[in-house]
Design brief:
By secondary structure, this protein is mainly β. The protein contains no helices and four strands. The radius of gyration is 14 Å and the shape is globular.
Length: 69
């Protein structure tokens, strides 16, 4: 199943934390930046990004409340 591409309007990103600890299968990463991303045209989609600068590690957690792709 292929999802249609849609314009979600203005993207807003905000720093929520500069010292977030994140546990994933690869291990635990300390002092990560936590960034929240929202979209003007669909407030049901919220992305959280976690960046660990010392180890160049990146994790994306997407929350979508209304189903879809």
């Amino acid at each position: 199943m292929e999802c249609p591409v849609e314009d979600l309007g203005k993207i807003t990103r905000e720093f929520l934390s500069l010292t977030e600890d994140v546990m994933v299968t690869a291990g635990t990463f300390s002092n990560c930046f936590k960034i929240k991303e929202t979209f003007e045209q669909d407030t049901h989609i919220i992305n959280y990004f976690f960046l660990s600068i010392p180890s160049i590690w990146y994790y994306n957690k997407r929350i979508h409340w209304m189903g879809g792709c």
